[in-house]
Sequence to fold (180 residues):
Amino acid sequence: MVTYAPFGPNTGNWNEELLASIAQNCYIPAFEGPPWYEVGEWTVKQVVADITNQLSKKGAIGFVALDSGKVVGCVFGYPMGKTELSAELKITVSIDGMYLDEICVAPSYHGQQIGSTLYQLWSKKVGRKVVIARTMTNPPTIVYPWFLKMGYTVIAEYNDSQGKVILMKDLWRPPNWMIR
Ligand SMILES: CC(C)(COP(=O)(O)OP(=O)(O)OC[C@H]1O[C@@H](n2cnc3c(N)ncnc32)[C@H](O)[C@@H]1OP(=O)(O)O)[C@@H](O)C(=O)NCCC(=O)NCCS
Fold:
C-alpha cells in the first residue's frame, strides 16, 4: 500500500536512507523517462545534494509517497520572490510565489493517482499562494496535460525546441464551482 508523508530537514524521516531512496527509486528513473530522457545525467550523490539544498530553503515543503519503505514519488517546492523567480525563469514575474521545483513518480507507478495525491497534499500545505512551475511540451507526453488537469495555465512560452513553458496556478482563487 502506498502511504504519504511530509519530508524535509525538520521531519523525523529525514535521513540519508530516505534521500538516497528518493534519488534511486524515484527521481532518477522518472527523469530518465519521457519527456526528459536525462539518461545517465544524474548520480544519487548529486540528487541527494540538490534535494538537501532545495529543502533547506526557508518555507520549503516536501512530500514523499512510500511503498514498503521505498520512495515511489516525491514533490517539493519553496517560496521565491519575484526578483528571484524572474532570474530563474528568465521572464518578468511580477508577483512573489511558491516555486514547484519537482514532482515525480517512479515510472512503474505512473497512472495510479500518486502524482495527483502528492500534489494535493503539497498544495494544501502551501496554502493561499501563487504556484509557479516549469515543464516542457515537446515531445508530447502526459506531463504537460497532467499540469493542465491540476488546474495550471501557461503564462509564458520559451519557443525553444523542447517547448518549455512556465505554468501558474493561483491557490488564492476558489474553484469555479464555488463562485458560480
Ligand atoms: C507527471 C507525473 C508526476 C504524474 O504522476 P502520476 O502518478 O502518473 O499521475 P496520476 O496517476 O496522478 O495522473 C493523473 C492524471 O494524469 C493522467 N495520467 C498520468 N499518467 C498516466 C499514464 N501513464 N497513462 C495515462 N494517463 C496518465 C491521467 O489523465 C490521470 O487522470 P485520470 O486518473 O483521471 O485518468 C509523472 O508522469 C512523472 O513523474 N513524470 C516524470 C517526471 C516529470 O516530468 N515531472 C514533472 C516535472 S515538470
Observations:
- The chain has six helices and seven strands.
